[in-house]
Amino acid sequence: MYFGWHKSNPKPMKLLNCCLILLGLATLAQAQHQGNAAQSNRPNYAYNQAASSPNQGFVNDSTLILEARVLFNAPAKSYQAVFSVTQVGESLEEAQKLLSRRLQQFTKALTDLGIAPTDIYPDFVFQVPVYAFETEKRLFSKSYNEVPTGVRLQKNLHIGYVKEEWLEKIMEEAAKAEIYDLAKVQYLVADQRAVTDTLRQVALRVISKKNKELRSIGVKFNAKYQTVADQLTVYQPAERYESYTAYSAAQLGNQRRGTTVNEVEKTVTRYYSPMASEGYDWVENPSPLAPTVQFVYILRVKYVLKREQ
Fold this sequence. Notes:
By secondary structure, this protein is α+β, with helices and mostly antiparallel strands. It has helices spanning 11-32, 92-113, 166-176, 192-216; strands spanning 56-60, 63-74, 78-89, 120-137, 142-161, 181-188, 221-235, 241-244, 269-272, 282-284, 293-305. The radius of gyration is 31 Å and the shape is extended.
């Protein structure tokens, strides 16, 4: 855009200044709604693949593929937390005794919270010897010999619970037993088969509707030649977290030789980033506030087109 300007005609310059001010305000308003993830120095976004590819199209002049993409955001009805517990002892007996003491303390605290013993399961993971180096000095040499010094045990404790807010209390009791490693939290859907059946039925209706719409504009299919393929993908909330590190770093000028620059460790932010609803033909529970289990079902039907005789 060109604005002519002359000392005797300052109006175009005023117009340019107004445009620049409005542009700056628009940019500021956009930044206020982006959040810090947009300022990430190392972004790690998982873009919605469903919205970036067409959901139907011609393979060639005689083959057509119709595709249905459906998404079901299913809220969890129960949860399962897995805590990892490791214990080291000078002997197997000592390691087992210390580990059992910590697990018993934690298990008792869980039952006091209202979690049934049947919802607590200890899973043995490994038992390995621990080695260290022993120094052997000689007159003109020194050698390091690896020798066993103890045993390391690891068990995982699987805990089932029905209220999401219980997890904080569970973690508090785990810390009292010196258990700090929360390995995993699984979201469990009440009836996964019902969710899958719903997705299939909806996908079939979507394909049928697209088929009819194409027939209405004169596209003819050969009913004897068609193939079907489908795919179901389930995303746990833990799989849909993204991370970024947002900061503004100062620019250093010319540095003298021998200068040391000590950088502060930057905080890594993690946030829940579910599959977006855009790009799907049908979405159940499109705007969930809390994390959900996301079921993505894709149905593809390949048709052979009829040729005019």
